[in-house]
Amino acid sequence: MAGLKSLAKDTAIYGVSSIVGRFLNYLLVPLYTAKLSAASGGYGVITNMYSITALLLVILTYGMETGFFRFVNKKNEDPTIVYSTTLISVGVSSLLFILLCFVSLQPISTFLGYENNPDFVAMMAIVVALDSFQCIPFAYLRYKKRPIKFAAMKFLFIIPNILLNIFFFVCCPWLLVHFPASVSWFYNPSYGVGYAFVANVICTVIQQFAFYRELTGFKYKFKKSLWKEMMIYSFPILILGIAGILNQVVDKIIFPFLFTDQNEARVQLGIYGAASKVAMVMTMFTQAFRYAYEPFVFGKNKEEGSKKLYADAMKYFIIVSLIAYLGVMFYLDIFRYIIDKSYWDGLDCVSIVMLAAILNGIYFNLSFWYKLIDKTIWGAYFSGIGCFLIIILNVIFVPHYGYMACAWASLIGYAIVTILSYVVGQKKYPINYDMVRIGKYCLLTVVLYAISEFVKIDNILLRLCFKTILFSIFIAYIIKKDFPLKQIPIINRFVKK
């Protein structure tokens, strides 16, 4: 129980940077969708470019983040040498990536459909190279159990990024009208979506300088034998990482290639990307949990009763995920205002996207069995199968059904890899998950959501009140079964009375 309390504490702190940070970035969603109408396809450009950079980030870290955690916890390895070897490896590869992109900038831009804006590609190449390098100092902070510093570094990017976006998309247009001389020398209103990338580059560079303490104060050593071991361990993680991230973003990457009308593709992609942001609360929780869970698992692996901890962590992860799912779906009438009304047509995909995100989180929890027994190749198999299915389903159905096919393809792909990982994992590294209790929570979620959809109430206030009652039933069931009030400090005093 002490281990779970520690995990919960770290998850909460990491959640400050992940959940609160992404919530603050949510401020950019209404900003972008208001300033870049759905018909303009501007938000489609953002969705497409950030999906590509997400894939490149996985490639440029090539599993070394997880490899760092694995080897830094080995008793026969010097943590400083592991850290410096990892930094040098990722740093050199990131530098080579930037050089390659700038040498081949125009051909790459043309292939991606940005032949008129190669500067977009150049800026995002710089961002993804620096982000991949910064993954290692961030991993080092997690290893040193410094979640507060970790969160602070995240906010160092988030807050300036929000302010710069407000400056470029709100302040500059206003100043151009009322005080043109103040901004006309650098601001071009026709550049539009490009200023989102400008802000990103500036903030990423600022964050890089802020890692001064994590990048100095020790002697850089590159241990070749260690690096080879890490590469052997990390390569399968790279493969499964590529497949895993493709499961999340491949639809947004290949979407423009599935339409003959590129403008229509960017319009639909923008609507899908904006609507998916409403479902991002699930991704935020999963990410916060991941930051705390990865070092927790490797650190507890050799302790007695560790499998019981993993089983409990899975159960509580699913419980909180279902709370988030019902919370978003029951109050979608409120959450829809995150995006501009011109994007509301895409809200039908929110429930599907959230279910896919839940399955992704469950798959992440399950994935540790092959990491702990050094059989990461299994993850590559599972994710590869899921990725293949998602790509095939997108290619077949997107031209006919648009972005809704993207949502369903992701859900099916994650369902398959989750089932495969569970079945094989129970044979290779069996963990006694409380499937009965988990099944009851899932069934109750389905029933409550079905009731909310079946009962039609036109008045929005009455509809929200009715769904609040349904939500309260779910919370009450959780409290009764897994979070009894008498065990919660302070509250238990009132319950006993």
TrEMBL record:
It is a multi-pass membrane protein. Keywords: Cell membrane, Membrane, Transmembrane, Transmembrane helix. Its main location: membrane. It holds the Pfam family Polysacc_synt. One of its GO terms (cellular component) is plasma membrane. It is found in: Cell membrane. Coiled coil: none annotated. The chain crosses the membrane at residues 12-29, 49-69, 81-108, 120-143, 155-179, 191-211, 232-250, 270-293, 313-332, 352-370, 377-396, 402-424, 436-454, 460-479. InterPro entries: Poly_Biosynth_Transport, Polysacc_synth. The keyword Transmembrane helix applies. This is Membrane protein involved in the export of O-antigen and teichoic acid.
